[in-house]
User: What shape does this take?
Amino acid sequence: RKFANLIHTLSIVSLMITQELKLKKLLESEKEHLRKENIQLKCELSEKYDIHNMIGKSGSMHLVFENITLVASSNVSVMIRGESGTGKELVAHAIHYRSKRSHKPFIRINCGAIPESLIESELFGHKKGSFTDAYEDKVGKFEAAHGGTVFLDEVAELSPAIQVKLLRVLQEKEITRIGDVDSTKVD
Assistant: This one.
């Protein structure tokens, strides 16, 4: 009887191990599928935002194309100016996908669409308990884009106090989450 119980227990353990191995193999297969899909989608975005897909043949547009190529090969912060609807976001995407940052996130932030009371938390993040609804730590957009690109649209809509904090990010390459005493380096 002990022998029968031992065999029964071993068969259950064997079945559990087999199921675990099947699940692990399935998970690895799904991870590989997602990795390949991610690479494919990044390639499609890179092609979509290539400067050859931008419309314009004037001398001014050729200068824009040259500047995109020039700044994409460097590691500088770029200010893109122009009237509404002129393609500033397309230029930002083109710079991102031509740069060494293309494998990292491109995060677009419409500064005019985020309420003043939330903008600092959205951009820089916050620590748990730093204000009433801060139930957990939150990573801000700059930290989330580390190594990639942040496109700040409608930056003139931000208050002067927030613009000063943005200047610190650009100059010092660091942020401080709301409620935190330590700063965090960001690129």
Notes: The mean pLDDT is 89.
